[in-house]
Amino acid sequence: MRPELKEVQLLEAYLQGRLTEEQQLDVAVRLLWDQDWQQKLAAQKRAYQALRLAGRQQLRRELDALYVRLFG
């Protein structure tokens, strides 16, 4: 696997709390010292926020369409 994908997976696991205590500590220390990793983590957080928002918007559209079908 490419190193970039491994980093993404590691940061994802870090954000989701799926790392061992030792791994969490390793990532936290690296984040303290590596600005590139800080930026990658921030970008990943923004991506997750965008996905959640898109999912909410899609759900809202589906609920609105259902409402129109039932009551419109």
Number of domains: 1
Q: Describe the main β-sheet briefly.
A: none
Helix and strand content put the structural class at mainly alpha
The gyration radius over C-alpha positions equals 18 Å
Number of helical regions: 3
Helix and strand sequence? HHH
Shape: elongated
Instruction: Let me know the number of strands.
Output: 0
In percent, how helical is the residue content? over 70%
Mean pLDDT: 93
First and last CA, distance: 52 Å
Strand content: under 5%
The unreliable regions are none
Describe this structure in words.
This protein is mostly helical and about 70 residues long. It has one domain. The protein is about 90% helix and about 0% strand. It is built from three helices and no strands. Helix 1 crosses helix 3. It is elongated. It starts with a helix and ends with a helix.
Keywords:
72 residues; mainly alpha; elongated
Helix-strand layout with pairing:
Layout: H1 3-16, H2 21-33, H3 35-71
Tell me briefly what this model is.
The protein is elongated.
